[in-house]
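Please decode residue identities from the backbone states below.
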């Protein structure tokens, strides 16, 4: 199964599961109270994408900073060994 099909199936499955969850929660009083706190699917998706963007951006910055420190350390170690 091609990747694009898998992603489309995953998207459809997530949308259906979210709708099923909301429908199940509507059946009880506590569920209805919980629903007042759960955002609509589109808003939840936007929140999740912002969160993931922040996580991956932070991770990328950390990796770049580590690489810079590593190369500066190599440079300084080599410069010191030449003197």
């Amino acid at each position: 199964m091609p990747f694009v099909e898998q992603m489309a199936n995953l998207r459809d499955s997530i949308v259906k599961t979210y709708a099923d969850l909301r429908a199940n929660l509507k059946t009880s009083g506590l569920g209805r109270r919980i629903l007042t706190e759960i955002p609509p699917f589109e808003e939840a998706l936007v929140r999740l994408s912002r969160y993931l963007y922040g996580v991956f951006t932070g991770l990328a910055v950390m990796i770049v900073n580590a690489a810079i420190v590593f190369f500066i350390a190599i440079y300084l170690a080599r410069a010191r060994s030449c003197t």
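Observation: The chain is about 85% helix and 0% strand.
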